[in-house]
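>> received
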Amino acid sequence: MSSDMLNKIKEIEDLRLKIKAGGGPEEIEKQHKRGKMTARERIEYLFDKGTFIEFDIFAKQLGRDYGLDKRFVPADGVVTGFGQINGRYAFCYSEDFTVIAGTFGEMHGRKICKTVDLARQFRCPVIGINDSGGARVTEEMGALSMYGQLFFRHSRSSGVIPQIALIMGPVAGGQAYSPALMDFIFMVQKTSYMFIAGPPLVKAVVFEDVVEEELGGPDIHAQISGVSDLTLADDKDCLDKTKKLLSYLPNSCEEEPPYEETGDDVMRTSEKLLDIIPTDPNKAYDMHDVIHEITDNGDFFEIKPEYAKNLIVGFARMGGETVGIVASQPKVMAGALDYKASYKGARFIRFCDCFNIPLVTLQDVPAFLIGTRSERDGIIRHGAKLLYAYSEATVPKITVVLRKAYAGGYLALCSKDLGADFVFELPTGEICLMGPEGAVNILFRKEFDDAKKQGKDPEEVRKARLKEFYDKFVNPLYSAGLQHVDDIIDPRIMRPMVIHALRVCHNKHDELPLKKHGNMPL
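>> returned
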């Protein structure tokens, strides 16, 4: 072999090693002291050992002002490539905070855009690991343009491939819209922040004195804004949960979700459900307990657990197949649907429909939340999102009515009328136009007033009318008799019934009307 060739190879490999060292030992030590892994450590932990292939490692920054042309900027502050996660291919970009704070320049942006393009073209998920000080001011027009090009690519990739954003440091300015355009956002406690403008700019422009945590920390986005889907303890926890999420998802819209043998008997019944679900319609219980009993091995990957807790959404397996679960939470607000729950549910439903994931809906809902505040919060337009999402979804849809199923809440959580393929009702189910108490008070108001005038006890009259109303309208036999439900089932067999219904729906064929796209309520 030619010595010249060996020398050239050595030059390239020496440079490669220098680039892989990032910002150098001091910057790496600073990163570790902040409680964070480096960009390359994150990739090494996320991908199956030895499978990650990096591209564009030799990319150079374009900035020439303020001495940037004299600085060595390894890989332009972002690592890009592909590899295997749980044996399946995925693409990834990981911003390197040790290299000029992971700032977003033109070549940095081009590398990320290329990663998303390749992921879409090759039908693989893309994971974006965000850890950046924001746009590189010395390349402001180049950075601004690349922001726009990245937003365009996220939008075009939406519904084609899963896009997962990991916020593992600061994400500021226009760059915050990149994760917002992706499917899921995970944040890390104490080390991650997201905001359109950081505290110094906020203070200068709107005169608010605020710290990063209060402006855009994980708790804010998990509990109040709803921007984040999960808050994790540290970098490794975040990456572990990313692997877990991917295990439920197909690589693209053209595939079915992966099957996994769980060892849990499809025909398993549950005696515990007899005690978990109260017969008293006013008694609270935790719907998580029901989900635990019907899913494979009780495993449930919840999405947005800290936001709109009155509605539960997440992924599970039933008979080895991935399902998306949407469930009322009677323990919070009696399971009533407010505007936050409507948004949360609609977005999750649409994701599942994009990626061929069947939907299992568990109803115990007293209706949409009413009142002045609810109306001003936009319950009509937000509630319509839930109606739209279920109506639009063509995946298999199985609904179980556990107890209350009143008014628009019953419809919005996938009734027959909104396209449910099968609806099962428990003996405790109550499907009704409105709450029985309210209906009786309206229907017989004059009779109650007359009873009072006649010296009778109006409460006794009301109780008699309420019993009559329940016996006639508010029982499973009434709704089953009108074919609004397919069967009244024993709670103990809920799991096998739902799994068999899902399996018979496996080859479901349901096409939307020919159109460019719908116009979802805002």
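>> The longest strand covers residues 397-406.
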